[in-house]
Design brief:
The chain has 222 residues and is an alpha/beta fold. It has seven helices and seven strands. It is 26% helix and 19% strand. The structure holds iron/sulfur cluster (2 copies).
Length: 222
């Protein structure tokens, strides 16, 4: 999933300051899973903004709604029925959601309420960790299911840096050394021989070398 964190309320207040009728728009997918922009967080932020406005004698209307997904046109189009009275939307979607809404309603300012962070997983209640950079050429087979791009602090592709202590990364002992994990895992499944080949320099052209990426599936377009 894509993770995000809410921007500080004061930063949000500065961005919405020019507007009088604001729709706070949540998203029920990834950002709900990471407790940043789901229905609950949207209601809480809208309420905090209303309270701050009232305390400052500001004449603004702040309302909220949550779409199931802000990055899918079929869901964004539901705003057709409600968007007219608002002069700005404060989106709690990820960066893709903000841009999808902005593309569909070019005449309305769409303001980001989150800082979009990374592709990752929920590790425990209140804990999310980065596990993938979306490189476009997955190497997880070679590295036993542990991504050295996302999880090794130095993004080393050919063996550990030598600085780990007790299996922890020398850059930050709070995180496990990705290379320790890679070796342990390959060893477990008899795959250590995969590391005998020198892994070539990463071909970043499959990430952003050709500009914004697109996936087109004709079989899905019929
Ligand atoms: S190798 Fe690339 S696609 Fe695979 S997990 Fe790592 S960054 Fe993601
Ligand atoms: S200690 Fe491990 S995870 Fe940290 S930079 Fe070195 S090889 Fe990468």
């Amino acid at each position: 999933m894509i993770t995000g964190e809410q921007k500080p309320v004061e930063e949000i207040r500065q961005m919405i300051a020019p507007y009088k009728r604001i729709l706070v728009l949540g998203c029920g997918s990834c950002v709900a899973e990471c407790s940043a922009g789901g229905e609950k967080e949207t209601a809480m932020l809208a309420s905090a903004l209303r309270m701050a406005a009232r305390m400052n004698n500001e004449d603004v209307t702040i309302e909220e709604m949550t779409l199931d997904r802000q990055c899918v046109m079929q869901f964004v189009i539901q705003l057709d029925k409600v968007i007219d009275p608002y002069d700005a939307v404060l989106s709690l979607g990820c960066g893709a959601g903000v841009q999808a809404v902005a593309e569909m309603y070019p005449e309305v300012p769409i303001i980001p309420g989150l800082n979009t962070e990374f592709l990752g997983e929920t590790k425990a209640q209140g804990e999310w960790a980065e596990t993938c950079l979306g490189c476009g050429d997955c190497m997880l087979y070679h590295f036993g299911g542990i991504c050295p791009l996302a999880r090794c602090s130095k993004q080393i592709l050919n063996g550990p840096c030598g600085g780990s202590v007790d299996g922890r990364c020398e850059v930050n002992p709070d995180i496990p050394c990705a290379w320790q994990l890679i070796i342990d895992r390959l060893d477990k499944f008899g795959g250590l021989d995969r590391l005998e080949d020198i892994y070539p320099p990463k071909d970043w052209s499959k990430k952003q070398g050709g500009g914004p990426r697109k996936i087109i599936r004709e079989d899905q377009q019929k």
